[in-house]
Amino acid sequence: MFAIDEVLKRTMQSMGEDVYTKYLRHSILFYWKDIVGETNAKHIKPLRIEYKRLFVYIADSSWKPTLYEYKSTFIQKINDFAKKEIIDDILLGNPNERPKEDENVICAPPQVDISKELQKITLTDDELDEINKSCAQIESSSLKNIVLKTSINRMKLEKYKRQNKWHECEKCGALCPQEQRTCDVCTQLEDETFRKTITQILRDVPYATYAEVKKEIERSMPQMIDDFLPHTVESIRTSLIQQTANSLDTKDQNQVNLLVMLYKRIPLDKLNDKIINNTLYELRYNLPMKGRITFER
Ligand SMILES: [Zn+2]
To answer: What's the 126 CA to ligand 1 centre distance in angstroms?
Structure first.
């Protein structure tokens, strides 16, 4: 099985868990063809990865059953490639979202060799003294060597971040790149809360429009309003539709109503048997096997 270049992988790992996860996600999109095979890759195109969910685009809908049939195999292959559980679901993206036609647009994984960058950083005598002092108590010389090396690298990394104008995260104080308001960890936590809030709004009011959801976000998470785009709510609506469909018990009328209201964007009093039936027909490949009875249009 094709695997990621070991040296590059170790380099990215040394930059911390979040950078490494970003790198892995990027690599999965970049090496997609090698992971799922050429034929599958031709018909099932990766769009993006959000919180362990890979969104894909399928132009020819006759390939949708293939995706559902081999979904767990694909997930396994992706995680084997990354040597980490990086994906736990594969979902269809928003129907308006198209993969970039030019494959080169998905650029190669970052090639910045951080260990080379760190070699260019020198520590002052004071800084080295500080490290030596912190290791003075360690008796075993081999252990001492390891701790010294690690501490030197860590201090160099901190210096590298400062020299590249990294600043303190608004929330936790960790150093983060100039263009980010918060560090990767805080950004991810905030994003998850943001997504959870939007999901809850859609569960409560499944037919809510972009403007209606926006009003609620302005009230409850004003700091996120710049990130709130029509695309955000659409992608969350899509995954909520798929999650609801994937686990749908067609006998549970509340679940069925929720699914139809989300999908058709209409309130409860506008539902009727015909609309419900059409929706279940359109979403039949998303339904669990036992629920996949034939729906007539
Ligand atoms: Zn932070």
So the answer is: 28
Enumerate residues 6+ apart whose C-beta is below 8 A from 36. 44, 74, 77
Claim to verify: residue 36 and residue 94 sit in the same structural domain = yes
Q: How many angstroms separate the alpha carbon of residue 188 from the centre of ligand 1?
A: 9
Mapped onto helix, strand or coil, the DSSP state of residue 154 is: helix
CA distance 182 to 86: 23
**61 and 156 inside one domain:** no
Could you list the residue range(s) of the whole structural domain that residue 248 is in? 184-291
Measure 157 CA to ligand 1 centroid, in angstroms.
Answer: 17
**Could you tell me the pTM of the whole model?**
0.52
Res 241: pLDDT: 92
pLDDT in tens, 89-119: 898 887 677 776 544 434 444 445 667 778 8
Task: Please give the distance, rounded to the nearest whole angstrom, from the Cα atom of residue 187 to the centre of ligand 1.
Answer: 7
Cα of 109 vs centre of ligand 1, distance in Å, is 25
Residues 201 and 272 in one domain: yes
| Kind of pairing between the strands at 175-176 and 167-168 | antiparallel
Question: Averaged over 178-187, what is the pLDDT?
Answer: 81
Note the pLDDT of residue 148. Answer: 86
Q: 184 C-alpha vs ligand 1 centroid, how far in Å?
A: 7
Domain co-membership, 137 together with 92: no
- Total structural domains in the chain? 3
Task: Tell me, in angstroms, the distance from the centre of ligand 1 to residue 173's CA.
Answer: 6
177 in any annotated domain? no
